[in-house]
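Students often ask why we bother encoding 3D structure as a string. The short answer is that it lets us treat folding as translation between two languages. Here is a chain of 135 residues written in the first language.
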Amino acid sequence: MDRGLDKWIAENVMEWQKVGYGAIGHGHGIHEPAKYGWYDKTGGMAHPDVKIWHPSESILDAFQVVEKMMEKFPDWFCTIDIFSQNYNKEDKGKGHCVVTFQESAEGYTIYSCEQAETIPLAICLAAKKAFKEVE
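And here it is in the second language, the structure alphabet:
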């Protein structure tokens, strides 16, 4: 479980911001309860609870990350390979899920290729690395 990675993905790849508890505009005559969750750039709620959105663990949340990457980089594609644990004995302990983000328009430029024990974690690691490559 990597909450730091989940937070990084939410804020950078998904472009969400976390809104927490408290009063909105406290001291300015406005006393509405604050909303809690992840919000997109327009102020719309992207996910209602920061405590349960975990793309590094949940395959459903991880595929939101893949979809966002494809939206941001329309010339890219993502491959997900799953190997049996006995496929490559030299990589024992590194995981058997490999995720790659690459661009087809530029002669298949690979921006990231990450390996992990689970598909969601591999997606998040690859998305973070690819995102940093093009920043």
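Translate back mentally: The longest strand covers residues 109-116. Keep this in mind for the problem set.
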